[in-house]
Structures are given as C-alpha cells and as structure tokens.
Design a protein that fits this description.
Elements: E1 4-7, H1 11-23, E2 27-33, H2 40-44, E3 47-52, H3 63-73, E4 77-79, H4 89-97, E5 101-102, H5 107-114, H6 116-125, H7 141-151, E6 155-159, E7 168-171, H8 174-192, E8 197-201, E9 207-215, E10 221-233, E11 236-242, H9 249-266, E12 270-279, E13 282-289, H10 296-303, H11 307-315, E14 332-339, E15 351-352, E16 355-357, E17 364-368, E18 375-376, E19 383-391, H12 394-407, E20 409-411, H13 417-423, H14 427-430, H15 438-445
Parallel strand pairs: 1-2, 1-4, 2-3, 4-5
Antiparallel strand pairs: 6-7, 6-8, 9-10, 9-12, 10-11, 11-14, 12-13, 14-19, 15-18, 16-20, 17-19
Bound molecules: adenosine-5'-diphosphate.
C-alpha cells in the first residue's frame, strides 16, 4: 500500500480523498493555490505545498508544479479527484514517467474515452447501445444534412472533446444546421483545443441514467448499480438519486451486466461511469467518465462500499475486496449539490461564511470543505457542499432530505438550498416523474 498520496485537487473532493487515505493509514499531501491557503483540505493534510497563484491554469492545472510537489514530499501516488487534471491523459502519462502511481485508469483509456467519437465507436463494438447519429466526425455540411435528415430532427451537435455540459447545440431544422455546426466547432476549438463535432439524435424526453463500474488489475469487474441524474440545468447535474425511480431491478441488473461485460472487454482498470440517456425503456450510451464522479456518495450510501478506498486499493495493485454477488443494494439515496449562487438567478455568490451549521443525524452525510469564517474564493467552481441522505425507502429518504435541508445554515452568502427545498416538494419530483428537461421547465414556471 502507498505511504503517501498527493491530492491534486481542492474543495470537498480533496477532503473526501484525504479522509479515505487517513482511514487507510496513508499520509496526505495537499497542493493549493495562494487563494486556498486557508482551505480545509490544506489545514487537515499531513503536508501542504503551494503550487501557484489563484488562476487554475497556474495552479491546479500546473503539471510541472504538481509533479515537483510530489517529488519534494516523496509522495508515491497522486489522486486527481474530478475536474482539473482527472481526465488529462498526458498528466497520467507524465506521472507514470516519474515512477509515481496515478490513482485512475491508464492514459490510453482516458484518451480513448475522452474523445466522445472514439468512445462511442468502441462501446458499440462491445455491445452497448448508443444514441443514433453520425458515424464519427461531421466535417462536410452536405453530408451532415444528409445524416440529420436520416436520423430526423431535432438533432444535437456535440463536440468530440466536450465536457461539463459545454460544446452542445440543439438543432430543430435543416436551415439551422450549418450555423450550429460552425459555432459548435468554434466553441470546441476555443474551449477544448479540438474542433471535431458529431451529430446525434436529440432525445426529447429522456432520463439521464448512469452506471458505476469498478475494475481491478486482475480482470475482476463489478457494477455498483445506477444513478439517476436527470435533474439538470444547462446540461449540468443539480440533484441525483440512486436507484433510479424509473428502473425496476430486472432492468438494473440486465444493464449492469451489459456494462460490466463491456468494461471487462475493454480491459479497463479503476472506477468509471457509463452514462446513458433512457427513453421508452431503451438505453442509449452518451459517454464514459474515467474518474470519480461528484455524485459517487449516493452509490456508497446504497452499497456500503467506500469507492475512494477501493480506487486507492486498485491503484496499489490489490484485488477488488468484493464480488458482484456480494453487493447488496439497500434503500434509497439522494444528493443535493449546493452552490454558492443565488438559488433562482444562479448569479455566483462568493464571499465570507458568517455562520455555519451542517445537518446531521441518522443517514445524513455532508461532503463539504467549508466552515464558519471561511471565505469562498471567486476563482473556482461554485459547488461548496453536497448533502447526501439515505432512507430505507424513497419516501423515507425524501422526508429525511426535507428535514436535513431545513436544518442547514450557511449564512453570509447566497446558496441553492432554497431551490432544493422547493423542488423536492414538487409533485412530479415526489412521484419520480421527471426527465432531463423537467428542471429547466420548472425554473421557467416559477419566474
Ligand atoms: P458532458 O460531457 O458535457 O457532460 P454529455 O454527453 O454527458 O456531455 O451530455 C450532458 C447532458 O446533455 C446529458 O445528460 C443530457 O441532458 C444532454 N444530452 C446529451 N446528448 C443528448 C442527446 N442526444 N439528446 C438529448 N439530450 C442530450
């Protein structure tokens, strides 16, 4: 097992990884920007190294500074968390060249899945159903029009290298197609350094359902069930639940088996998430994330498996500590992402937290690195906490979530807690009757 892990991230996920390491007897190294000197992960880590100024480009994305920090402190592994460098194949490669273990999959798998076009091709061959669309990149507008006519409007133009809900454009008719492709290409080149785009059928009433997989270096693969992440704003997840209120256990295990087989065929090692759109009883692959997900705790709550601990064990060369038949899905879990934003206009609201009280009690978990007196810097993602609640049934989980949200005090800044409080009282949400467009429509309806 590793003696020391460097955590190449910040915020709640840096703390989450620190906690797993401490429970495994592993020392931690926090790296931080000058803006994060007083951050909780920095205060709690066994060692810390300042790696640059506030801008992410110069700190959390600064590969030479992070590698130097690992060398100076003698860390034998690096955990990238999510975001930042977690899906950067070059980072994984450079770490390996320095004889440091990357806690994640191989650089080759990151590369393969990072390009959504190659990802679709690969998983299709492995027996996973994909969204109908262009076979590969669309470069030529005449060909693109033909493909769109064939799959039928509306279609969605997507950047091969896209992520974080960016680099996508919905097109409703042929005369909008050319300009959508051009603007998507431009945005993709500027944001991701790769202008390639492809076409997909735009599904009008789907749910977003994803499967968590985990695989060791010895060919053992398990799936940890699904998460329903249909509540989204601007293609970004706001609240997630596990299991999905839309699936029965037969559908869950059937799809879980298909996914596990594909992951085995791929020779993938580590944790990963296979994302699908689910419409009229059918699954359509959209992408695979080759890292830990923000929403991993809801899976932990219904399986009792510490995913980060397993991830570290796998990187250290240990076999999975369970088999598929050992995994028992128990109860229901929901996660609310709490952002430092106005709950209804979504204007960012960084600043000093004057008063802080986190909810507690049975089956309530708060993953957050904020505290009373902490100043949220304006430079990074606005998510400041995740409230995760478990119950024996979905109804019990909902009642507990209401109670926990009511207890949560974060004073001094605006947060999205009031949004969660109101949306979980909506009859559609209570009945589990929502798709990926539901939240946007709801937000329009309450304006
Ligand atoms: P990202 O990598 O940016 O998260 P995804 O491909 O995972 O991009 O898509 C994010 C979200 O965008 C999906 O959860 C869904 O809401 C929407 N989306 C993507 N592809 C389609 C599609 N073909 N039809 C309808 N919605 C889509």
């Amino acid at each position: 097992m590793f003696d020391k892990v460097l955590i190449a991230n910040r915020g709640e996920i840096a703390l989450r990884i620190h906690r797993a390491c401490q429970e495994m007897g592993i020392a931690t190294v926090a790296v931080h920007s000058t803006a994060d000197e007083h951050a909780m992960h920095v205060r709690l880590a066994n060692e810390c190294v300042c790696i640059g100024p506030p801008s992410s480009q110069d700190s959390y994305l600064n590969i030479p500074a992070i590698i130097s920090a690992a060398e100076i402190t003698g860390a034998d592994a690096i955990h990238p968390g999510y975001g930042f460098l977690s899906e950067n194949d070059k980072f994984a490669e450079i770490i390996a060249e320095h004889k440091i273990e990357f806690i994640g999959p191989s650089a080759e798998h990151i590369r393969l899945m990072g390009d959504k076009i190659s990802a679709k091709e690969v998983v299709k061959k492995l027996g996973i159903p994909v969204v109908p669309g262009s076979d590969g990149e669309v470069a030529d507008i005449t060909k693109a029009k033909k493909i769109a006519d064939k799959i039928g409007y509306p279609v969605i133009v997507k950047a091969a290298a896209g992520g974080g809900g960016r680099g996508m454009k919905v097109v409703h008719s042929a005369n909008e197609l050319e300009s959508a492709i051009q603007s998507c290409k431009k945005e993709a080149a500027a944001s991701f350094g790769d202008a390639a785009v492809y076409l997909e059928k735009f599904l009008t009433l789907p749910r977003h359902i994803e499967f968590q997989v985990i695989a060791d270096k010895y060919g053992n693969v398990c799936h940890l069930g699904e998460r329903d992440c249909s509540l989204q704003r601007r293609h970004q997840k706001v609240l997630e639940e596990a299991p999905s209120p839309a699936l029965n256990s037969d559908e869950q295990s059937r799809m879980g088996d298909i996914v596990s087989k594909a992951i085995k065929g791929l020779g993938y090692v580590g944790v990963g998430t296979i994302e699908f759109l689910y419409e009229n009883g059918e699954f359509f692959f959209i992408e695979m994330n080759t890292r830990l997900q923000v929403e991993h705790p809801i899976t932990e709550m219904i399986t009792g498996i510490d995913i980060v601990r397993e991830q570290i064990r796998i990187a250290a060369g240990l076999p999975l500590s369970f088999r598929q038949e050992d995994i028992k899905f128990s109860g229901h879990a929901i996660e609310c992402r709490i952002n430092a934003e106005d709950p209804f206009t979504f204007m960012p609201s960084p600043g000093k937290i004057k008063d802080y009280h986190a909810p507690g009690g049975l089956d309530v978990r708060v993953d957050s690195a904020i505290y009373s007196g902490y100043s949220i810097p304006p430079y990074y993602d606005s998510m400041i906490a995740k409230l995760i609640v478990h119950g024996k049934t979905r109804n019990e989980c909902l009642m507990r979530l209401r109670r926990a949200l009511a207890e949560y005090v974060i004073d001094g800044i605006k947060t999205t807690i009031p949004l969660h409080q109101s949306l979980i009282r909506e009859p559609d949400f209570i009945n589990g009757a929502y798709d990926i467009h539901w939240l946007e429509n709801y937000l329009k309806s309450i304006k």
